[in-house]
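User: Write out your own:

AI:
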Amino acid sequence: MGTMTNKLQSTFQRPYRSPFSLFDLARIGFFLFGFPKNTFGSVDVTSECNLRCQHCYFFEQERVPQWSLEQWREKFERLKCEGFRFYQCTWVGGEPLLRPELIQLGRQYFKFNTVTTNGSLPLPDWKNVSWCISVDGGPAYHDRFRNHPGLYQTIRDNIRQSEGQRITIAYCITRQNLGDIEASLAEWYQEPKVRSMVFSFYTPIRGLDDDLWLDWPEKDRMLDRLIELKQQYGDFLVNTTRALNLMKSTTARSVTDNCSFASTSFAFDPAGGAKKPCMLGSKADCERCGCIVPFFLRSLTDRRLVLKDLKERVFSSLRRIPARPPKGTEAQGTP
């Protein structure tokens, strides 16, 4: 598989991406001062979905009536008066694109917006929105897992018909789709309109099939492989090495027992109510959490880890600098 990956990478030059962004500046602030309350969070746009996927947590939660646009506007205005930060929001569901008007409203309040979609509907022409399209394996597995024949091709068509959107493929790893990971990475790397790919792991939810979860030894092996793939794919693979290491069996509980998202972020259901501990709801098994968010947040704020990685990076760079011969001993040309 590695040989095929290298050949695919050599045939396509990915578009240039600036090495620095506003979020990089924000990360410096997070490292120095931690996360302000309600900096990151999510809104369940709608309680409806046009699919019924095997691993979806949403329909295992208590159903609540859906708020009107005016009720959401009133909530956002009230939060504004209360000093709510309106920094970053992830619009989820249900299928959020079944109700684009609420996202349109919310975009007027939040500085950064991400829409997580199943990819079955065309992407609106929103250039200042980041898109996460859920793709969980190759065509055969993905369509079967999401109970929708032809969905994979529909996703490809919608991506190729988009213009200028920032698109990330979001792959949820289960025990059943391990074999598709590297082929999926190689395939989506070749799609010019896909900016990046991110991996999470299935989080067990009471009421759903627990067999989808990888046990700890399997998960640790997969994390090691993702770290190797990170060396090949660089920033195209969004997960950072530091966050991947934190997800391992030896360190995961230290993160999930003190989840940064649960303690500092917001999650609103379709009726504007607070979801606890996070968007996955109260039935999620936090001890086996596979969501990348708490591990990513910890990786940004744990100063010991950040400084350790920085030190290793500096020494690694120094080791690559060729040694200079002592003065006066430079190699002489052959007479």
Notes: The mean pLDDT is 85. Residues 25-319 form a domain with the TIM Barrel fold (CATH 3.20.20.70). The CA atoms of residues 122 and 161 lie 8 Å apart. The chain has 13 helices and seven strands.
